Amino acid sequence: MTSLRGLDLNLLLVFEALHETRSVSRAGQRLGLSQSATSHALARLREACRDELFLRAPVGMTPTPVANRIFPDIHQALESLRHSVEEARGFDPATSTRRFEIAIPHPLGPAFALRIRDAARAAAPGVTLRFDTRTLADDAPALMREGLLDCAVDWIPAEDDRFVNRRLFDDSLVIAAREGHPRARPGMGWRDLAQEEFVRCHRRAPERRPKALSGKLWELMAESRLTVSEYLEVPFVIGRTDYLGVLPKSMARIAEEQFRMIIVPVPGPAIRIPIWVVWHEGRRRDAGHAWLRALVHREMQGAAVEAGLLAEATSPK
């Protein structure tokens, strides 16, 4: 679009809904428009952009390269407008329709995401939360600077002084084995562990690796014959083999209760891994963002209390 003159800005809402739903009917339902009105809006968008924008496919609509190229800018602009209007009226969770993006690279990211989602639905039924649990979310700081990501729950704090890092709890590491493993038992020492084979996860790049994830335990696993992508895959493997696996302590109760696994403490001092919620300083005065931060803080600490990692939850500072 070379000019906004004469363009009905409501068409941008239609474009955003079409790109996100990949469906004329679902986009119309989201916006309260009939299918014919949505199709008419798409025709006007095509004329304004001089591009087809969305092509029919066997399942839904496929965006063209032009649509994919302009979507991030249009989406960000609309989110900024929604935020501005909502801030002018004040943030009310019960009536808000804001959207928030949260990254949770922690191994239990999917479980934490569902917990936060359920709590948000109870307090703010119109608010939409989107989660990304990629392990290597190296672009998270840039996305937070640009306003495309609201906060991240990670074991790597942001180093830029424009970011705020709030410590949620300390996770740690344990060793897990299947029920009935012929040698696994509490109290195994380094000599015992050196006789076993391990399944391990791919390690993060050095700059994205917690300092605690080094030392004797990792040397022991260096020759692992089986390497997986995510910690959630480890119970699947050790439940079917005599491999041992290393898990965050936050997963220990799940491993014991749902997979009936034996949990073995790592010899020596506990390997502590601080878990942080990270957000950009520019969102400090955003009332909606403050609500989101308090929600994430409360639910993450509640999960930590249930996992035995924290004696009691604290209020965010």
UniProtKB/TrEMBL annotation:
Extract the coiled-coil ranges from the record: none
| One Pfam short name | LysR_substrate
List, alphabetically, the SUPFAM superfamilies matched.
Answer: Periplasmic binding protein-like II, Winged helix' DNA-binding domain
Which superkingdom does the taxonomy of this entry point to?
Answer: Bacteria
Location of the HTH lysR-type domain: 7-64
MF (Gene Ontology): DNA binding; DNA-binding transcription factor activity
Keyword Protein transport belongs to the record:
no
Identify the keywords attached in UniProt to this record, alphabetized: DNA-binding, Transcription, Transcription regulation
The keyword Transcription regulation is assigned to this record: yes
- Which family, according to UniProt? Belongs to the LysR transcriptional regulatory family.
Protein name per UniProt: LysR family transcriptional regulator
